[in-house]
Design a protein that fits this description.
alpha+beta; 13 strands; about 350 residues; 4-stranded antiparallel β-sheet; 3 domains; 7-stranded mixed β-sheet; ATP-grasp domain-containing protein; D-amino Acid Aminotransferase, Chain A, domain 1
Length: about 350
């Protein structure tokens, strides 16, 4: 983007715009390598799905890169492979089936009300079909290179996690309930929670994989207190906002400098993205008193003392994303990440 929100922050020393990694990963890595050398950068930290392109080429970058190896990140991003990986852990995935053809999808149409269908590579639940009809399934055409999964539907309370791990050791952990969302996917109002099975799951995940960097998971908690993991996001997620009152401690956790005791945990109350609440949630729930009570109770993640720039900058960023949405014929959420998404395409190939 030309005008991301963080560019207006007093904490940003310099902003450099790079080529789109999805269009040409090699060109993006070359530009990043030049920037690292020019600015004498010591550490590169991904924030979204550019993490996959970064992991694929991190061996050629002359600095520390906070990602795990590409093969592990691919397995975590692939919803079927990750579901199989979670078997036997504290919050295993519900039954998950791989679908590589339209015929495989239609064989499940009679049982569709008990399942959730989604692409193996996807984000923000933008294409997920929750307990769909047979007519909806007829429009699903997976292939071996771009498969879907069917995951057994589990009712309950949703939780999302954000964690930092260094060589598999959990150094920071936050969990939240996304009471309000942008559409059906990304959370925009974060209520801190901490179910014990979720923390145990993340610790098991770290011990089993030796993961490095930021990672998030989506869970369902059933009425009996059991938790089931739905999918993994091997990158930063919105839960990082819950640490905004502990920035120095978060940096120590990120770099592995935190003491080897209990992982860093959030200390504050609910947070939100205020503009997103007004744009996405208010049109649907604005007549509810409970909505405005939630709005008043949460801290806007872009409001920081002595750093007013990001708050108005989000309007400029929104205009840029809206123009991209029109040009690329996508929704706002999809347009915001269209240049950095990775859907299993071979790395190194220009699109």
């Amino acid at each position: 983007m030309s005008w991301p929100v963080s560019r207006a922050s007093r904490s940003a020393h310099r902003y450099a715009r790079l080529p789109e990694p999805r269009l040409n990963p090699a060109r993006w890595l070359d530009a990043l390598r030049g920037l690292i050398l020019d600015r004498k950068i010591d550490l590169v930290l991904p924030t979204c799905e550019e993490a996959f392109y970064l992991a694929s080429g991190r061996g050629g970058l002359p600095c520390r890169v906070l990602t795990s190896d590409f093969d592990l990140m691919h397995r975590l991003h692939h919803k079927y492979q990750f579901a199989r990986m979670s078997a036997g852990w504290a919050a295993p995935a519900p039954e998950t089936r791989l679908l590589e053809s339209q015929a495989a999808v239609m064989r499940m149409s009679h049982a569709a009300p008990g399942w959730v269908f989604k692409p193996v590579y996807s984000r923000f639940a933008s294409r997920a079909l929750l307990r769909p009809s047979a007519a909806q399934l007829k429009r699903v055409h997976p292939t071996p290179s771009h498969p879907w999964v069917a995951q057994r539907y589990v009712p309950g309370k949703e939780h999302c996690s954000y964690s930092l791990l260094v060589d598999g050791r959990l150094t920071a952990h936050a969990c939240y309930h996304p009471r309000h969302r942008a559409g059906r996917g990304s959370g925009i109002w974060f209520e801190p929670t901490d179910p014990a099975p979720i923390r145990a799951f993340v610790e098991q995940f770290g011990a089993a994989t030796g993961y490095n960097g930021q990672v998030g998971f989506d869970f369902i908690e059933t009425q009996d207190g059991c938790c089931r993991v739905l999918e993994c996001n091997p990158r930063a997620t919105s839960g990082v906002h819950l640490f905004s009152d502990q920035p120095l401690q978060l940096i120590d956790a990120l770099l592995g400098n935190a003491p080897e005791c209990a992982p860093l945990s959030p200390t504050g109350g609910p947070s939100m993205v205020g503009l997103a609440m007004l744009l996405f949630a208010a049109p649907r729930r604005g007549l509810s008193r409970a909505f405005w009570k939630d709005f008043a109770a949460a801290r806007d993640v872009l409001l920081r003392k002595g750093d007013p720039g990001p708050l108005p900058a989000q309007l400029i960023a929104l205009l840029e994303i809206a123009s991209r949405a029109l040009l690329r014929r996508r929704g706002l959420l999809a347009a915001a990440t269209a240049d950095i998404e990775w859907d299993g395409d071979p790395m190194g190939e220009a699109r």
